[in-house]
Amino acid sequence: MGSADEAEAEQTARELLNSEPNIDAIFALSAVATLGAFRALRDEQNSKVLLVGCDQQYDLLYYLSLGKIDSIVAENTYEMGELGMKIVIAKKRGENPSQVIKVKPVLITLENMSAPEFVPILIHDWRPMP
Question: Which CATH superfamily is domain 6-75+104-123 in?
């Protein structure tokens, strides 16, 4: 959903849950939409709807750690920053680096959120990895 307002995102999620009683999952495309869907699902009785969110904000990670959000699609900002610096260095050397660089997102779940390779992504720690 494209709303920048959490209350509006929550209302949209509530309307979806009311109009589609057999829904299995919600995929929210932003932190705002994820929080709105989380709040709507929180108030549902015995809801078994899975919530997959986007963005690794700390409140979303907290709900993920409680099992209230099924998973989060997170940007690999660590890799983005590293590749960005490599481009700057290459340009300063007079090289012509690729104009299109794709960085795959990662799927964070309760089971893997403490994995060492995801820590820099989740806590926004941009120090060199060992």
Answer: Response regulator (3.40.50.2300)
